[in-house]
Amino acid sequence: MQFSSPTTRRSPPNISTLVLLSGLSALSLNLFLPSLPNMALHFQADYKVMQLSIALYLLVNAVLQILIGPVADKAGRRPVLLWGLALFLIATLGCIYAPTIEVFLAFRMCQAIVVVGMVLSRAAVRDMYDQDQAASMIGYVTMGMAVVPMIGPAIGGLLEENFGWKANFWLPFALGVMTLALTFTDFGETSSKSGKTLVQQFREYPELIRSPRFWGYSLSSALSSGAFFAYLGGAPFIGTELFGLSAAQVGIYFGAPAVGYFCGNFLSGRYSVRFGVNRMVLWGCWLNAAGVALSAALFLAGFGTALSFFGLMTFVGLGNGMTIPNATSGALSVRPHLAATASGLSGAIMLGGGAGLSALAGTLLTHETGAMPLLWLMLATSALAICAIASVIRRERQLGL
User: Fold this and answer.
1) What is the pLDDT of residues 202-231, one digit of tens each?
2) Can you list the domains of the chain with their CATH numbers?
3) Which of 36, 51, 331, 393 has CA 20 to 30 A from 57's CA?
4) Burial tier of 172 (Cβ tally within 10 Å: 0-12, 13-18, 19+)
């Protein structure tokens, strides 16, 4: 096949390229967490100020997801990816050589541009495949995203111990260079330019916002993953304060949902085409709720343990691994010509809701309350996720889809 120029390359990207794009975004979030104490000493900053490097990153990440979609629908996936990765490399160097905490935090926020990899890898999948096949491929892409957060902090701890905190930024820089090179050579444009101005492109948002099916898919994904985000906010307290686990033990137990998520994404990749996205989302939401409900029942009966609490969270991960890829594919398929816009908006809804639930979970737990406030919160969000996908199924029956 002949290509007219590097900027108009049309060959579809390999699945490994899409996995790497998604994984780089996930790695940049939590790789350096073990370095926070030493970074606080290096910058002579309070640890709470250093923790802003996570909160601000997530905030900018959510905002960028809303902006990237319309830009990519207008300009195409390939140029936005290439520019985004190049800016990520510059921001990462800024973090490494920042002289003060203020400069570091500024470049850290700029690092969030790497979210183009997650948003546009999913949009590219929807460009290339129909709804059910797209759900299968998104499952394989996000399966890589499940592994990276699970092993990222462990790798970061080893790098910190042997090479210092800057190694946790040199690694994503090196991977970013590799990803940029691979994207340039392998990621062909998967979508035609919309031909609209950027203002016109942003005016397409109401078309999505007015769609009940888009909201049903997006909310089922956001609420199902909301149970996991609430777990992130509350589980460390439960492990250390209620069950007296060491940091190493909490780290081992904490990965239970990630194992389930990996398996759920594999099931999505294997069976979404056979059963369809709606069934996969519904079954995933029920598995999510069942795991939390069983854990709550054990605690109410007085049999709750660290093993039962963390072990049953595997079902939360399993359910999310089935729900998120399929619900994402459904949301992107409501208006296929707005796939990138839908990817960004649904991602922002999920991340924004998750951040709020994570913070809420952390405030609800005390020694007196035990684990139940967290489990009730997770159960409520899981039940609402079932309602959300049920509304989509009911809507499609009414429309005869």
Assistant:
1) 677 777 788 888 899 999 998 998 888 888
2) 13-190+198-202 (1.20.1250.20), 207-399 (1.20.1250.20)
3) 331
4) buried
